Amino acid sequence: MADKSKNGVANLNEAIRQSLILVLAGGRGSRLKNLTDTEAKPAVPFAGKFRIIDFALSNCVNSGMRRVGVLTQYRAHNLIQHVQRGWGSFRAEFDEFVEVWPAQQQTAAESWYSGTADAVYQNIDLIESHHPKYVVILGGDHIYKQDYSVMLDHHITSGAQVTVACLEVPVAEAREFGVMDVDEQDQIVKFLEKPQTPPELPNRPGWALASMGIYIFDHELLVEQLERDALLEDSSHDFGKDLIPYLVPKVKVMAHRFSHSCVGLDGKKEPYWRDVGTLDAYWEANMDLTHVTPELDLYDPKWPIWTYQVQRPAAKFVFNDDSRRGYAVDSLVSAGCVVSGSAVERSLLFTDVRVNSYSFVSDSVILSHADIGRKCTLIKCIVGPNTVIPDGMVIGKDPQLDAQRFYRTEGGVTLVTQEHIDKLK
Question: Which residues does the UniProt site feature Could play a key role in the communication between the regulatory and the substrate sites point to (predicted)?
Fold first, then answer.
């Protein structure tokens, strides 16, 4: 339990009850190409049965934080529906909720969200109605397991007014992040947004401290700074670009190292955190789950990942003849799938996928309700939801042909959607 803090909070449980979490879930995720044509990045399916946002929401619930607002904007219908169906079971009389807060153009400018800080600013009235002492702000589009209560405890006991969750990354990768320069106590002395020469950690040369886009603010300071920033015409109204750099020299802003609150670290060299914002990163993160010992443990009953899913029958594998045998090895096969006389290797099949006879699927991510025809070969593919692969189609053997017909990434992953298939007819 935390000691009595500067805010008069007697213990960590009380601090948790006085916290409000805001999940920023309005991002488009355009680098995921066709996968985000119809839904926001946080709603993109992941790991067979989940959606990306389930990881942030599960972290909230498992951390004991059950006052959560989900801020949506881009193509929000599927996301809203998922949150309502999967996360609507909390008891309002206990002041517990996971609510969707859609963009409503609530300011005089009547504009959509122009930045992360503006998204929060446009919801100030809702925030105030819950009377929080602390406001936790995080994105809904990353894959990781974190105990936010540990970060909150650090925020209180350190006497910070703002705390930023940080990840140690190689300097070459740090150029894509907000980077922090810290003193011996991890107080932030400089915050640099995507610097060309990131400051290295003194105790770990070649590595830098990057922002994870997760912040804890004292409520009064947050409101004051959002109102100040909203009046600035030259501001991009973003936490990383504007508010945090402004506050670093003025108030106590602490860095919280992810390794201190990462769940499931268990002696691993680096804590698990993934931005699956590109097709290659999305494919790699899903493929990791097919390994004997994945970096991300989804089987830990102490920190479950919750979701909404339609009830479907168990996966089914049929035919065991020399000419056709239905099997899957080194793979994840979700409920409702039927592997009929086909071979599936090192792949991940989402709900209700069908793989028909004499086909071979390898190193692929097959999203829900896809139907792989007879005598098909799919190697290193991402197949979009509801996509029907015609009989006899071969994908993954001829890079030039794949690039002409579908979308092929720099990493050699071929994205196939029903839109691509229709254009071939």
Answer: 73, 112
- In eight-state DSSP terms, residue 266 is T
pLDDT bracket for residue 2 (50, 70, 90): very low
194 is in an annotated binding site: yes
Instruction: Give the separation between CA 77 and CA 99, rounded to whole angstroms.
Output: 14
The pLDDT assigned to 379 comes to: 98
* 193 annotated to a ligand binding site: yes
Check the annotation: does 419 bind a ligand.
no
Q: Mean pLDDT, to the nearest integer, of 406-414?
A: 98
What DSSP letter does each residue of 209-272 carry, written as one string?
A: EEEEEEEEEEHHHHHHHHHHHHT-TT----IIIIIHHHHTTTS-EEEEEGGGTBTT-TT-SS--
Q: Are 117 and 228 in contact (CB under 8 A)?
A: no
Q: Which of 262, 266, 275, 228 is nearest to 247 (CA)?
A: 228
CB 177 within 8 A of CB 139: no
Between the CA of residue 89 and those of 77, 82, 84, 397, what are the distances in Å?
Answer: 19, 13, 9, 47
Contact between 180 and 212 (Cβ < 8 Å): no
For CA atoms 319, 324, 330, 335, the dihedral sign is negative
User: What is the mean predicted confidence (pLDDT) over 84-91?
Assistant: 88
* pTM for the structure as a whole: 0.95
Q: Identify the burial level of 72 via C-beta atoms within 10 angstroms of its C-beta, where 0-12 means exposed, 13-18 middle and 19 or more buried.
A: buried
Cβ neighbours, 10 Å, residue 203: 7
pLDDT digits over 91-125, tens only? 878 889 999 998 876 655 657 898 999 999 999 99
What integer pLDDT is reported at residue 110 of this predicted model?
59
How far from each other are the two terminal CA atoms of the chain, in whole angstroms?
64
Q: What is the DSSP letter of 315?
A: P
Domains in the chain, CATH or no CATH each? 6-289 (3.90.550.10), 316-424 (2.160.10.10)
* Amino acid in the structure at residue 387: T
Distance CA 161, CA 19 (A): 14
Give the containing element (helix H, strand E) for 149.
helix 148-157
